Amino acid sequence: MLSVSSTKPGILRPFTTRHDLDSQNCHKVVSLAVFIVTNILWLYYFYLLYCLLTAPFYFGPSHPRSSVLLVGIICYVAYHWIKDKDTSFRGVYLNKMLRHASFWSNLFNYFPVQMILSDELIEYSQKNQEFSTSGSDDVQGHRCAFSGLPADRNYLLCYHPHGLMGQGALACFGTEAVGFSKVFPGLKPWVAIHPAFFRVPLMREIVLSLGSIAATNNEIRYQLDTEMCGEKGNLVTIVPGGGMEMLESRDDSYTLYLNRRYGIFRLALETGSALIPTISFGETKVYTVIAAKRGTFFRRIQDYFIEMLGVQTFLFYGNGLAPYRRSVNVVVGAPIPCDRVSHPTREQIAELKSNYIKSLTSLFEKYKVYFDPEAKALEII
């Protein structure tokens, strides 16, 4: 369900709740229960995975159960590595039924997660109405100026900050929890996640069904390059900060690991994809992350493990199994058009990066007064 917020001028707020969460305690109970059950199921999943892998040693190599399990494991691995090895970047498993499951709305209503369309995005939509796939500006009986984004190009949406798990990115772009298909009709969403998720049995089938792809250059390029995928209207969501940004999660600060990121801007120019800056208020508040301060010996060790091995070494906590119940507000900025350049120069990449950072900073300063007035200035490292 989509609705228009009248409390914050110029903001279109899509969400899926049927009632006001602040006045309906039942939603809090349901959302909390869903989160607890989800965590328990994850623990049980890893327990079953452990039992599956150790069963041959437990029963003995000659036991019939061991033979069946070994054959099953060999067949699954063979299918994964030989027949189905390219699905992590082609995204052929996208399942609309799983994306639209009501489970996701109940899960993310725990915070809740909300998507806010910025004034800049609405203005961009008005200028490109003739190319938009949305034929009406009437949403649930409310008149709104946003009519979608043109589907005649591909988009690279950069989500900031990473936080611990990127709940806002998953809710808004990885599922239909906030009504992505209603807000951006005609666009096909893809979310780039850590390649390790595609190496875990059964989990890879889930993330593939949600439209996830591996967060590597080749995989993202395939979805953005119209010559490679043969499609337009793809919207790929990435979290540029990655594991390094996870270590910077603090309640009162917004620190983005972006100074050393040039690949996304080169990729946008090489594929001619529009860059969409997106800032999430509250993403870093749902968990408390315990990490060493920058410049210390232990922090250098943590940085090494993340950059070289891709392993996060830090502690975190929330409300027991569940995170803190704090609102996550995802503000989507206006696309930054990029002309296709086969071999962009350093100057072109630097200019695009500078424009992107200016747009992102402006977006943060404009909307923090609504969603996090006590936030410090945006820090880019």
TrEMBL record:
It comes from the Eukaryota. The chain crosses the membrane at residues 29-53, 65-82. Keywords: Acyltransferase, Endoplasmic reticulum, Lipid biosynthesis, Lipid metabolism, Membrane, Transferase, Transmembrane, Transmembrane helix. GO terms for molecular function: diacylglycerol O-acyltransferase activity. It is a multi-pass membrane protein. Its EC number is 2.3.1.-. The keyword Endoplasmic reticulum applies. GO terms for cellular component: endoplasmic reticulum membrane. It holds the Pfam family DAGAT. The keyword DNA-binding does not apply. GO terms for biological process: triglyceride biosynthetic process. It is an enzyme of class 2 (transferase). It is found in: Endoplasmic reticulum membrane. Belongs to the diacylglycerol acyltransferase family. This is Acyltransferase.
